[in-house]
Write a structure and sequence with these properties.
660 residues; alpha+beta; 5-stranded mixed β-sheet; 25 helices; globular
């Protein structure tokens, strides 16, 4: 281990030396004043010319990123030809005192501004100019970009440290199944806390109150989306759903698995109708009353294919979902109607398990959650022949998710509705707190043994993982053409009254096809990169490459979750003004004073770093633990090979966060 620590310190010294070198070179260089000519348009900025002293350089296509040197004094000349835009530079608002507007036919003169701090900064539009106004930005990279070099060095150091950690334990045999018993905590047996938690989860009225609150907000989302302001940033449906709700769910997955599914209001209307009640259990019909034609949900759809494909399709239309209130409203309205139909047609949570797009990725990442519903003793479950947890009784319904609680070994499909806690007469159900991803080796081993039946979960994992990278580019990048293509070239916001504006032109459809092709190509590229490394490991270990590809894909469960949490934090901090103001004015029509918060761009970068580093480290450690189950004594070599794509992805995200 001493040599390992030495290697870490050498790498750290190298990174620090590199940063100091760039800092000194920046401090000893003489800079001249520059004039930068920028054109603003829906929805982006581009540099058309830069004058450095007497040298004037014109850019025919325009630059999407402006590169400067620390110490440069820059005067901006900004013009536009379409609509009124705003102009502000994050991190330099102290030098731009007024709210500047770029008016067609005029040239806005801003500056001179002294860029005395290295890093990534963004030009942002401050005047609502259309549907994608919140994402209208352009990057300014001030060299030497020490934050990027430091973050990239930290990624490499994290990968090295994780590899040293697993190599130091590689000679010790590990029985993960036995070790798990000692790494778990029975939450309901914790003094004081356990009794309170147990009382809450068994309380039907407490559960009902949470659902009613969520139902109220979801109805408000639908109504405000249909009849509120067509501007997404001013509408409750957009601001709350795609910023607050999205961020909250990501963190719920880590700390509480599928807990959102237990309070989600979408399927409960059908469930209440089917049960003929809301709070009470019908002791005469413990299996829930069935309305209409009885049906059995087809076995061929009892997987994650529909949620995976549904999530992918929705992601292809994400520019409309997060900017057009009417689209968000119609989406949730359709989910409500579909959920009611499925519950009445196939009583049980089949919609949640096998149809809902959000439920699919929540289930996939829940395998890495620190919380799990488990039985205390499988022997007690086996001895209890009545199986009240399946059939139901006078105290609780049978499991709506159609699972046998006594046999649950992973979180993927357990909706944490806690009905098994209410119906279990032996008090054998509990909540376990565990290490992140502790069950992944066993899940991966089962998946490798029957890899064809797990391809649905693998596909969900890679789709979700790849889209985390793409969303970083879309939401926080400055590639304006990509945003416009995904937007179908349509600049308008829309509610129910102005929905006719959303009909795209043929040119817009062609642009969207290019956008969709770009998204699908990225997913295919990520999958190909990981399969290539599985193929290399296959040659070394002699194990089928497809089995390895499926097994190692589960290391993306914690990795992808932490990347999405970092993205959610950045999204929340960047656009926090929107949900705050949406609660003050849900429909966006009232004349109320807008609340404005401002956080320096450094804060969002710094807060994303722990998530990226933790995700990378967990991915490498999870890969090793899976490799010990699959490849045996080749585990360290296999992990070393798999750590290459893990690290490459982390470096890509570091480049997006801190600027290349």
């Amino acid at each position: 281990m001493r040599s390992g620590y030495l290697l870490v310190f050498v790498c750290l010294a190298f990174v620090l030396t590199l940063c100091i070198h760039y800092a000194i070179s920046a401090a000893t260089t003489v800079y001249e004043e520059k004039k930068v000519y920028i054109e603003a348009f829906q929805f982006g900025y581009k540099v058309v010319a830069v004058q450095d002293g007497e040298n004037l350089t014109r850019y025919r296509q325009g630059l999407t990123t402006l590169r400067l040197n620390a110490g440069d004094r820059v005067t901006f000349f900004v013009s536009t030809q379409d609509v009124v835009h705003g102009f502000n530079i994050e991190g330099y608002t102290d030098q731009i005192k007024d709210r500047l507007m770029v008016i067609p036919g005029r040239v806005l003169w801003v500056g001179p501004i002294t860029f005395n701090e290295a890093g990534k900064f963004r030009i942002k539009c401050t005047t609502p100019c259309g549907a994608l106004h919140p994402f209208m930005s352009m990057d300014i990279i001030v060299e030497p970009n020490i934050p990027y070099y430091t973050l990239s060095g930290s990624v490499i150091l994290t990968a090295i440290a994780s590899l040293l950690y697993i190599s130091s334990n590689s000679t010790t045999p590990v029985d993960f199944a036995r070790r798990r018993k000692y790494d778990e905590i029975d939450l309901l047996k914790v003094e004081y806390i356990g009794k309170v938690v147990k009382r809450l989860i068994k309380s039907r009225s407490f559960h009902f109150s949470l659902i009613v609150v969520n139902l109220f907000f979801f109805v408000l989302i639908i109504v405000s989306g249909l009849f509120g302001s067509p501007t997404g940033s001013e509408n409750f449906s957009i601001a709350v759903t795609w910023i607050l709700w999205f961020a909250a769910v990501e963190f719920m997955i880590l700390f509480a698995g599928r807990i959102w599914c237990s309070v989600c209001p979408i399927p409960v209307i059908g469930e209440w109708i089917s049960r003929r009640g809301i709070l009470n259990v019908n002791s005469n019909d413990n299996k829930s009353a069935r309305f209409g034609r009885k049906g059995i949900f087809p076995r061929k759809y009892r997987n994650m294919w529909i949620p995976a494909l549904g999530f992918l399709v929705l992601s292809l239309f994400i520019p409309w979902l997060v900017t057009r209130p009417v689209v968000t409203s119609l989406l949730f309205l359709s989910l409500f109607v579909t959920a009611i139909y499925f519950y009445l047609r196939y009583p049980g949570r089949y919609f949640c398990k096998h149809i809902c797009p959000a439920s699919g990725y929540i289930g996939y990442h829940s395998t890495s959650s620190i919380l799990a519903v488990r039985c205390r003793s499988r022997q007690i479950c086996m001895q209890h022949r009545n199986k009240d947890c399946i059939k139901g009784n006078s105290t609780g319904y049978g499991c709506p998710w159609k699972l046998y609680p006594g046999n649950i070994t992973e979180n993927t499909y357990c909706g944490m509705c806690f009905e098994c806690f209410r119906s279990c007469l032996r008090d054998n159900m509990t909540l376990k707190i565990r290490m992140i991803g502790i069950e992944l080796p066993e899940i991966a081993k089962k998946a490798a043994a029957n890899f064809k039946k797990r391809l649905d979960e693998v596909s969900m994992g890679y789709i979700r993982f790849s889209l985390a990278i793409f969303y970083e580019i879309f939401f926080f990048g400055s590639i304006f053409w990509l945003k416009d293509f995904g937007n179908l070239g349509n600049p308008y916001g829309a509610n129910l009254e102005t929905m006719y504006l959303l009909f795209p032109t043929m040119e817009g459809i062609i642009k969207w096809m290019i956008w969709a092709g770009t998204v699908l190509s990225l997913i295919a590229g990520i999958m190909a990169m990981y399969y290539l490394h599985s193929l290399i490991i296959s040659r070394i270990s002699g194990i089928n490459s497809r089995k390895l590809f499926v097994a190692f894909s589960y290391s993306l469960s914690p990795y992808g979750l932490f990347i999405w949490m970092g993205f959610a934090i950045s999204l929340l901090l960047t656009f926090i003004n929107y949900p705050v103001n949406a609660f003050l004015d849900p429909f966006g029509y009232a004349d109320v004073q807008k609340i404005s918060f401002y956080l320096p761009p450094k804060v969002t970068v710094i807060l994303q770093i722990p998530f990226l580093m933790s995700g990378l480290s967990l991915a490498i450690i999870s890969t090793y633990r899976i490799a010990r189950e699959i490849t045996g004594d080749r585990a360290v070599v296999s992990t070393l090979i798999c750590s290459i794509p893990h690290t490459v992805v982390a470096l890509i995200i570091a480049g997006i966060i801190a600027g290349w």
